[in-house]
Amino acid sequence: METKTAGLEDVLQQLFNCPVPQIVVTESDHTQLTHVNLMSDSAISSTDPNGIQIILSE
Description:
The structure is a single chain. By secondary structure, the chain is α/β, with parallel strands linked by helices. Helices cover about 15% and strands about 30% of the residues. The protein has one helix and five strands; from the N terminus they run βαββββ. It has one helix at about 10-15; strands at about 1-5, 25, 35-40, 45, 55. The protein has a three-stranded mixed β-sheet, with no helix packed on it. It has a two-stranded parallel ribbon with strand order 1-2. The protein starts with a strand and ends with a strand.
């Protein structure tokens, strides 16, 4: 995830009451998802219409 919010990892840790290493945050001039990894019964790699890379892993 790219975001203007510095320290978002700390906010997410407070929200979920534990570290969330699965969410990788980099600072940027805008907020957007850059890619999403999901667990599934099948393996697929694709890019959605907004340009977000989506990976389904078995």
